[in-house]
Amino acid sequence: MAETLISSGNRYESLPERYKRPLAERPNLSQVIKEEIPLIDLGCSDRREMVRSIGEACRSYGFFQVINHGISRAMMEEIMGTAREFFHQPMEEKMKLYSDDPAKKTRLSTSFNVKKETVHNWRDYLRLHCYPLQDFVHDWPPSPPAFKEVVSRYCTQVRQVGFNLLEYISESLGLETNYMETVLGEQGQHMAMNFYPPCPEPDLTYGLPGHTDPNTLTLLLQDPQVAGLQVYRAGNWIAVDPHPDAIVINVGDQIQAISNGRYKSVWHRAVVNSDKERVSVASFLCPGSGAIIGPAKQLQGKDSPPIYTDFTYDQYYKKFWSRNLDDEHCLELFKIR
Ligand SMILES: O=C(O)CCC(=O)C(=O)O
Ligand SMILES: [Fe+2]
Prior knowledge:
Bound molecules: 2-oxoglutaric acid, fe (ii) ion
Low-confidence stretches: none
Structural class: alpha+beta
Number of helices: 8
Mean pLDDT: 95
Distance between the termini: 43 Å
Number of strands: 15
Strand order of the largest sheet: 2-3-11-8-13-6-5-4
Helix content: 25-40%
Largest sheet: 8 strands, mixed
Radius of gyration: 19 Å
């Protein structure tokens, strides 16, 4: 039973033991503070100012939200609705896609890495590889019927938003506009549709415990009705209130490495609540398999020697999945000592 979906539609009366965190690891929800993370208007006509504010956000928060990003409200509602519909299907339908093998390219799973972890997380998730679309779409869920079409359309659009952001981020570091795009090679794209059912004891567990994202850049759609994302900053967890038009952006470990630590891939987590289900859709850009990642030469100097070794994303990703999600920052393992 331990390794199966929790999105059964049944309400749990109490939290099963295998989801309970020891006292020292609980979310301490009463201590969470409310603070806005930077909101950036990508429709801004002053590119220099926009690039400056993106750089500032990457340096001091590692997170920001963007509006006027080019994806319509209707598209955002469609993809969120499709994710919700997917998880509301009968268990028999969903279990056809179940797998706990992280190497599998299309799979429905639960928690994070059920085979390895000792305490589970109150989350089910559908993980998809999304680029190039034609290599993966045939493997995606056959239902709901509009799934493949809606998700394909969203993936194409969100990829473009991601590439625009990589240009701004490159410029904000003083690198050539296409620096990231060139270094990162033919980037892959993954998606996680996350589903967090109502949880009987949200104080004792997580949807996702504190973690950093191993990839380049993450573009997240939050449930517009239900908050749950929290970001760590200066000793506090900050609740990120959903903004109906915004995409939440966070710097992944790879940008932290390329920026030689100037930009932070920060800890974030998803908490759950007792009365509402919550959905989120995360899109991850990931370096191409041949790409060599490491601190940009232009960002190294006498006063700023490289802090990370060069590595390939394959090496990094294997390391990431061999750990627990909330272990030390995976990039620590690639530090020059
Ligand atoms: O559900 C959320 O708000 C966070 C999801 C997340 O951090 C992830 O999928 O990596
Ligand atoms: Fe994440």
